[in-house]
Amino acid sequence: MPSQSNHPAKETILVADDQVSNRELLQELLDTQGFTILTAADGSDALRQLGRSPVDLVISDVMMPHLSGFDVCRQMKNNPETALIPIILVTALSDKQDRIEGIQAGADDFLSRPVDRIELLARVRSLLKLKQRTDELERAESVLFTLARSIEGKDAYTHGHCERLTEYSAALGSHLGLPVEQVVALRRAGVVHDIGKIAVPDSIILKPTSLTPEEWKIMREHPVIGERICAPLKSFRAVLPIIRHHHEKFDGSGYPDGLRGEDIPVTARVLQIVDVYDALTTVRPYKPAFSITDALQTMKLEVERGWWDRHIFAEFEKFVRSGTARFLSRGAAAGAQD
Q1: For the chain, what is the domain count?
Q2: For residue 55, is pLDDT > 60?
Q3: Beta carbons of 43 and 16 less than 8 angstroms apart
């Protein structure tokens, strides 16, 4: 049947239902709006289809053999590859408990049978707009991550540094009991914390000897530049303080703002502890990799000087020495001069 809509996109919708008549009804209603329709005969088939083809929206019956709509929803939301795909659950049941279970499974919306055409299209278009914004956000984040990794890639000594900081800082944040949103911010900041170095000449970033006062002045601008680069992304709001303040010191001698003590955001204090540890335990152009014991002893002396948060370092040291964080000692060439 030809499209009767001016809908500009060809979004793909997966319809999962074990009843052929229900699938055909939804397919006919959506075909007329210019969407690309995939169909699945049960929950297992739906998950297989999601693994094979890009999908923008899932409409799933609740009561299906093998895997119910609730099961499909839970598995989608627990898989990073499909977690952001919106899902509408369709049911003939009006019991409140079913909707509660659907919400707990992660459903984005609900439809009751018999399906009303106008309601169906309104809900589908609303969720597809949301998916479009999510895709745009993911693309923007991907560009920033690629840019950040291109800086790391300029120097063999920085190889793996971003990945380690992402893993280590999130692990330490979780160990400290930080809220989930701060742990997520630490994961992102592990990649983009030094993105402002895009504005620093390679001759400074790659210099194997000490920087001159003028070169240090240029280097110290990178946290502010990095914050400015990432500021347009609303999803990075919790990341911006980490980018700007990961070179502050507890005694106020750091940069760019000379913040002191707990005025430094806790997430920035977490990342800087891990950043220092990674710099010490990996090869740099001006030094060999320190052992775990030597690295922790060096950091302890820096804590006594007033550079790092004493409480966070104490927890970090326990975390490392407990053996829980054995991955923290993995050797790899890393680190440009900061």
Answers
A1: 2
A2: yes
A3: yes
